[in-house]
Design goal:
The chain has 239 residues and is mainly beta. It has a single domain, classed as Alpha-Beta Complex (hypothetical protein yedk fold), CATH 3.90.1680.10. It contains four helices and 14 strands. The two termini are 20 Å apart. InterPro entries: SRAP, SRAP-like.
C-alpha cells in the first residue's frame, strides 16, 4: 500500500515539471509545500483531464482518501487511500472513478514500512524515489462529493497499487502504480480500462533507503524525515 508520501518540489517547480498540465487552481497550495511527510486527509495537487477533452490536462487540488459522489457528507468512516489494481474496475467504491475520473498524483517519493518479524511489531520505514531524484506521477482515481453543511464540492482521490517489483518485494507485497511519462495522457484519457498500465515500475529506475521511525507521526514534517540512517545486516537492497 501507499499511506504516506513526500513532495519536496515546490508547487511552481512541480507545475514546470509537468508542463503539459495547466496550473489551474493549484497555486493556492503553495503555502503548504514542500511537504515532507504527507498523510491521508491532507490536500495535494493532482492532475486530471479537462472536461470534455481528451488531450488537455490541468492541476487541481484534492484531499487524499477517496469518497464516492454518492456518499453523504464524507461517508462517515476513514476513506480508502489506495485502490488495488486487481479489483479497481469491479469494486463498487472505485469502478466509476476508474472508468471516467483517473488522475496523476505527482510526488517526489513515498514511504513504506518493512516488517522485521512475523508479528509485525518490529518494523523499519523506508523512503522510495526515482534514482534520478525527479518528481514522478502515481496513477490515481478521483471523485467529488457535496458537503452537507456548506454545499461545497470536495474533490478526493486514491492511489492505485499493484504487485511489487523486485526492489519493493524485499520490503513489501504491494507498491504504488508509477506511470512512465509516455503513459500520462493515456491514463488520463477516455479509455475505460487501461489496465495494462497498472504494472510494477522497473526496479533499475528506483531506489530506497532506511529512514528514522519519526516518519510514523504526521506531526513530524521536516526535511530530515527523508535522511538516510545506518543500514543493518537485515536490509535487502540488491536488485
Amino acid at each position: 500500500m501507499c499511506g504516506r508520501v513526500f513532495v519536496k518540489t515546490t508547487i511552481p517547480d512541480m507545475v514546470r515539471r509537468f508542463e503539459f498540465a495547466h496550473p489551474g487552481e493549484v497555486d493556492r497550495l503553495g503555502y503548504s509545500f514542500p511537504l515532507w511527510n504527507g498523510a491521508p486527509s491532507l490536500t495535494f495537487p493532482i492532475i486530471i483531464r479537462e472536461e470534455l477533452s481528451t488531450s488537455m490536462a490541468g492541476f487541481v487540488s484534492a484531499r487524499w482518501g477517496l469518497v464516492p459522489g454518492w456518499a453523504r457528507d464524507g461517508g462517515g468512516r476513514p476513506p480508502p487511500v489506495n485502490a488495488r489494481c486487481e479489483t479497481i474496475s469491479s469494486n463498487g467504491m472505485f469502478r466509476k472513478a476508474y472508468a471516467a475520473r483517473r488522475c496523476l498524483v505527482p510526488v517526489d517519493g513515498y514511504f513504506e514500512w518493512h516488517k522485521l518479524d512475523a508479528s509485525g511489531k518490529k518494523k523499519r520505514p523506508y523512503a522510495i524515489a526515482l534514482k534520478s531524484d525527479e518528481p514522478f506521477a502515481m496513477a490515481g482515481i478521483w471523485e467529488e462529493y457535496s458537503d452537507n453543511a456548506t454545499g461545497e464540492l470536495i474533490r478526493t482521490f486514491a492511489i492505485a497499487t499493484c504487485e511489487p517489483n523486485k526492489l519493493m518485494a524485499s520490503i513489501h507485497d504491494r507498491m504504488s502504480v508509477i506511470l512512465a511519462p509516455a503513459d500520462y495522457m493515456r491514463w488520463l484519457g477516455l479509455e475505460p480500462d487501461p489496465r495494462d498500465l497498472m504494472r510494477p515500475f522497473p526496479s533499475d529506475l528506483m531506489k530506497m533507503w532506511p529512514i528514522d521511525s519519526k516518519e510514523g507521526s504526521p506531526r513530524n514534517n521536516t526535511p530530515d524525515i527523508i535522511d538516510e540512517i545506518g543500514r543493518g545486516p537485515s536490509d535487502l537492497f540488491d536488485v
